[in-house]
Specification:
The chain is built from 15 helices and no strands. The chain is mainly alpha-helical. It has two domains: 168 residues, MFS general substrate transporter like domains (Growth Hormone, Chain: A, Up-down Bundle); 179 residues, MFS general substrate transporter like domains (Growth Hormone, Chain: A), CATH 1.20.1250. α1 packs parallel to α3.
Length: 368
């Protein structure tokens, strides 16, 4: 597999996604839609991604990876264009749903393409995760470079997302799965060899869900300015990219300790930020540790799933495991919301964050 088309496509798509993800809630507030409603809109995006992942996994014998990726680029452009043209609530509802579907299409298509293209997918997945992480960091930065103009940033994001289709067309054509392979065997959780991958996916989704919701809330409540909160969250995202590369470059004999250490770092980092957010050096150290741990688990989750099954099953299994990550990303903020009547946001985040350390309780397989 030539890695550059996949990596470049991921970089461009995630750049556009980074702009879209930040701009949609800010534009919704600008048009007078309340904070609570913004949270519902973000949940709609997550629900759209989960539903589409489940549907794609069942239609794997009819859909090509390149087709999914091309569709994701078109849908992301459509999502941004909707809110540029219309500020009514219905436009934001549809834009968030379409964004979630685009994300589901893209990650299923990209990860399935990688694991089906090479016999040893771990390093190739690390390159893709690295490119995606860079895009998710540079996308929001585009808003600052355009002088805070959300419309200009979204327009540039549409252009970037559209250009992502060009390297996608250079990706290798892979044959469709046979219907019996696409239908799969037992559910992934019922297959012991896949449980470590599922747990790692849940850990990564929990961390990402917290970073995009209650980590900024807890940091702001601790007295940090908005710019400082943005910088600290950016540190977490950037170090997750480093964690993905660490998982890709580590020798195979180190993957077991990296899996356990990554889970402990992700969980302890989130819990620590919830309980001790006021000391800046401590907060930075916790965000760095949790980001590296979560990034490593993200790459290991997919690569371990690919190693645990026959090559013909890889595409379907990777899609199923990714669905657990998407569910955790959606439900972890909801779990904190359910705890808030009893706990303050910090302790509630510490309790939910401990979920990210659960993979450390299970010994991973030696291959990854």
């Amino acid at each position: 597999m030539s890695r550059w088309p996949t990596a470049l496509c991921t970089l461009l798509f995630c750049h556009g996604l980074g702009v879209n993800t930040v701009a949609l809630p800010l534009l919704a507030l600008h048009h007078g839609h309340g904070v609570t409603l913004v949270g519902v809109l973000v949940a709609l995006s997550g629900g759209g991604q989960i539903g589409m992942r489940m549907l794609v996994a069942r239609w794997a014998h009819r859909l090509t990876e390149r087709g999914l990726i091309l569709a994701s680029a078109a849908l992301l452009c459509l999502s941004s264009a909707m809110v540029l043209a219309e500020g009514a609530l219905w436009a934001f509802v549809l834009a968030n749903l379409v964004q979630g579907v685009a994300r589901g299409f893209f990650w299923v298509g990209t990860q399935a393409h990688v694991v089906r293209s090479v016999p040893e997918p771990r390093r190739a997945l690390a390159v893709v995760d690295f490119a995606g992480g860079v895009g998710l960091v540079t996308g929001p930065a585009m808003i600052g470079l355009t002088g805070g103009s959300l419309s200009a940033a979204l327009a540039l994001g549409i252009l970037t997302s559209a250009v992502a289709a060009l390297p996608a067309l250079r990706m290798a054509r892979l044959p469709l799965l046979a219907p019996e392979t696409a239908a799969g065997r037992a559910r992934v959780w019922r297959r012991p060899g896949l449980r470590p991958s599922v747990l790692a996916a849940v850990s990564t989704g929990t961390w990402r869900g917290m970073l995009g919701s209650y980590v900024p809330v807890v940091l702001a409540s601790a007295g940090y300015s908005a710019s400082a909160v943005g910088l600290l969250v950016g540190i977490g995202s950037a170090t997750s990219v480093a964690g993905s590369m660490l998982a890709g470059l580590a020798p195979r004999r180190r993957l077991g300790p990296l899996y356990v250490g990554g889970a402990i770092a992700a969980g302890a980092g989130l819990a620590g930020i919830g309980l001790w957010p006021r000391e800046l050096p401590v907060a930075v150290a916790l965000l760095v540790a949790s980001g590296v741990g979560a990034g490593a688990l993200q790459t290991l989750s997919t690569s371990m799933a690919a190693h645990a099954v026959d090559p013909a099953e890889r595409g379907r299994v990777v899609a199923d495991v990714g669905t657990y990550r998407a569910v955790a990303l959606l439900t972890s903020p909801l779990g904190i919301a359910a705890l808030l009547p009893v706990f303050a946001p910090g302790p509630a985040m510490a309790l939910i964050g401990a979920v990210a350390a659960v993979p450390a309780l299970r010994r991973p397989p030696p291959d990854g």
